[in-house]
Design goal:
Radius of gyration of chain A: 22 Å
Helix content of chain A: 40-55%
CATH class of the largest domain in chain B: Mainly Alpha
Structural class of chain B: mainly alpha
Helix content of chain B: over 70%
Number of helices of chain A: 14
CATH topology of the largest domain in chain B: MetI-like fold
Number of domains of chain A: 2
Distance between the termini of chain B: 50 Å
Shape of chain B: globular
CATH superfamily of the largest domain in chain A: Periplasmic binding protein-like II
CATH architecture of the largest domain in chain A: 3-Layer(aba) Sandwich
Structural class of chain A: alpha/beta
CATH topology of the largest domain in chain A: D-Maltodextrin-Binding Protein, domain 2
Shape of chain A: elongated
Oligomer: heterodimer
CATH class of the largest domain in chain A: Alpha Beta
Mean pLDDT of chain A: 85
Number of domains of chain B: 2
Order of helices and strands of chain A: HEHEHEHEEHHEHEHEHEEHEHHHH
Number of strands of chain B: 1
Mean pLDDT of chain B: 87
Number of helices of chain B: 11
Low-confidence stretches of chain B: none
Strand content of chain A: 15-25%
Distance between the termini of chain A: 55 Å
Largest sheet of chain B: none
Order of helices and strands of chain B: HHHHHHHHHEHH
Chain lengths: 336, 292
């Protein structure tokens, strides 16, 4: 049966394209590779219930996704950080209004090799000393990070500078988005970082929590202490629980999708969004991320239904230590 | 006496050099072959549990054991067909003009120089060109036809160069014989030159197509997608391709997706082998029809 379909399609494909009436049943999503697995899972389930609607998902990164989104080329864009001022401006210029919808949490894990016996936790202050731009060429040995750690080289592994993970980490640790030392091994592919750290006793690296969970046997995770006792005292181990209840700070971040207001007028887009928020809490867990509290999904859905445009973060990009639920509550109560 | 000794010594030396050279050549062929076997074997072993009809006929999925390559495989296949349809007439036409019609001069030399340079331009540049020209200016959108047109541009220099090489292998004496019999330029081209160079032209085209099927950068630039749960059904349809699907699976955290990636690699390699095999078969078949 399938080969026949393939042949028929080949024939149709070679014939001149007729009209664009399929455009109306297409939901076009693009953006962050971090958020991709969630949107893929939702799209897969959605297509089972709505056979006539086609959902396509691309990966062009959070920044690349916003570029297309603000030109009106996509209906929904995946983002691993809130929209930045330059992107707010681009969307205004392109006449694209949008609703910001948080869909999940992700933790960023600080990881070493299991043969590393000395490091059992790390503080935010130490991470800052290690990753800030001034550390380049200076903080190159473990003993420089914390006195008492061995006088041996430290080998750093981290995300590529185009990723949302990099943006969030630098904002949370260095205090300035997109600013860090440059002398570390970087890769856009977290599996490459996993490989590197798993085979280097002197390594320290960071990547999404899901990659640690899948490689527990080959890596050691460092609990992080933010020095603020009111959200959990001492070093906190990253886990679904500590990310969700806001104690693993500041390295927990929300993930988003942005939907264009104009696209929401189309029934297939609004029913896809409704489906997204209904199914997220189970599907998010399945693909390795951490669901928001149930109340947050209800609030997010109200936000979509009432077409509340703009960003919860005031269009200022990554912000640290925020509770999505509280932000949504506040936004829902605010006068329109 | 001494002269005879000297001669026998040089002869022995020659034998030694000959053997050494042979060994080096053998090594030169063995190394890439071993590498290919190791790569293919490695991927095959990892992919074995996932390889099967189901993998070829399923859509991508969040569960690695249900995921398949159908949209990517179909996307790659349509891309190749459309690319060939665009690149062959243009490439062969350009080669024919340059070899048979163009008067030698500085303009022709400039064109030739530019074509050789274009063959060395990184593929992502073609992607950017395709994005601006096909996707935006000609407003073809992020569609199958825009992808194929971009790949066709990428292949054009290679197709032109391969076709020109093939055209040059046709001896001048045969053209002269055709002219002597009263054939004009068109008749000579159609009846003598084209049939004789066809095997070479086709081989060149199929080999460059086999290269294009592994291209990812230009396709991602023009907006090929990653998750598509349908087979493209028109020229303006959104699409994905095998290398993009493989890249996505490789970068996922779950080990199950890495098995899918290996299976995707095996499918891509088999497709390439099939194309290269077709090239060899076509050449053999067409060569049989040629008599000197």
């Amino acid at each position: 049966m399938k080969p026949i379909i393939a042949l028929a399609v080949l024939g149709a494909g070679l014939a001149p394209a007729t009209g664009c009436n399929e455009q109306s049943t297409l939901v076009r999503v693009d953006g962050s590779s971090t958020v991709f697995p969630i949107t893929e899972a939702v799209a897969e389930e959605f297509q089972k219930t709505a056979q006539s609607v086609r959902v396509t998902v691309g990966i062009s990164g959070t920044g690349g996704g916003f570029q297309k989104f603000c030109r009106g080329e996509t209906d929904i864009t995946d983002a691993s950080r809130p929209i930045k001022p330059s992107e707010v401006e681009a969307c205004r210029a392109g006449g694209v209004g949008y609703v910001e919808v948080p869909v999940a949490y992700d933790g960023i894990a600080i990881v070493t090799n299991p043969r590393n016996t000395w490091a059992t936790s790390i503080t935010v202050e130490e991470l800052r000393r290690l990753w800030q731009p001034e550390a380049q060429g200076h903080v190159t040995r473990w003993s420089r990070v914390r006195p008492g750690w061995p006088d041996r080289e430290i080998h750093l592994f981290g995300p590529g500078v185009d990723s949302g993970t990099y943006d969030y980490f630098t904002e949370a640790i260095v205090g300035k988005e997109h600013s860090s030392r440059g002398d570390y091994t970087s890769s856009e592919d977290d599996n490459v970082l996993v490989q590197g750290i798993a085979s280097d006793e002197l390594a320290l690296g960071l990547f999404g929590l899901a990659y640690y969970e899948e490689n527990r046997g080959r890596l050691k995770v460092l609990p992080v202490d933010d020095g603020e006792p009111d959200n959990g005292a001492g070093p906190i181990v990253p886990s679904a629980e500590t990310v969700r209840n806001g104690t693993y700070q500041p390295l927990s971040r929300p993930l988003f999708i942005y939907v264009a207001s104009r696209a929401l007028e189309r029934p297939e887009v609004s029913s896809f969004m409704r489906f997204y928020l209904e199914k997220s809490s189970s599907l998010v867990r399945e693909v390795g991320y951490i669901p928001l509290p149930d109340r947050a999904y209800v609030l997010a859905r109200e936000r979509v239904d009432s077409r509340r445009t703009g960003s919860l973060f005031g269009g200022r990009g990554s912000q640290v230590g925020v509770s999505i639920e509280a932000l949504l509550e506040r936004a829902a109560e605010a006068p329109r | 006496m001494t002269a005879a000794l000297a001669r026998s010594l040089t002869e022995r030396q020659d034998v030694g050099t000959e053997r050494a050279f042979r060994a080096i050549c053998l090594l030169a062929i063995a190394l890439p072959l071993l590498l290919l076997v190791a790569l293919f074997g490695g991927a095959l072993i990892e992919a074995w549990p996932r390889l099967g009809w189901g993998f070829l006929t399923s859509y991508p999925s969040r569960s690695p054991e249900l995921a398949g390559v159908l949209p990517a495989l179909a996307g790659s296949a349509f891309l190749m067909v459309l690319t060939a349809l665009m690149a062959i007439p243009l490439g062969l036409g350009a080669a024919l003009y340059l070899e048979e019609y163009a008067r030698p001069g500085w303009i022709t030399s400039l064109v030739e120089l530019n074509i050789s340079n274009l063959a060395g331009v990184p593929s992502i540049i073609y992607g950017l060109l395709g994005l601006e020209l096909f996707v935006r200016v000609l407003s073809l959108g992020r569609s199958l036809v825009a992808g194929a047109a971009t790949l066709a541009l990428l292949l054009l220099p290679m197709v032109i160069m391969a076709s020109r090489e093939a055209l040059r292998t046709v001896p001048r004496s045969l053209r002269e014989a055709s002219w002597a019999l009263g054939g004009d330029r068109w008749q000579t081209l159609r009846r003598v030159v084209l049939p004789m160079c066809l095997p070479g032209v086709l081989t060149g085209i199929i080999l460059s197509l086999a290269r294009a099927i592994g291209e990812t950068a230009p396709l991602i630039t023009i907006g090929a997608l990653t998750y598509v749960a349908f087979v493209p059904d028109s020229l303006s349809s959104p699409f994905t391709a095998l290398p993009i699907q493989i890249f996505n699976w490789v970068s996922r955290p779950q080990a199950g997706f890495h098995v899918d990636a290996a299976a995707g690699i095996v499918v891509l390699l088999l497709l390439m082998l099939l194309m290269n095999g077709t090239a060899i078969w076509l050449r053999k078949r067409l060569q049989r029809r040629i008599y000197w």
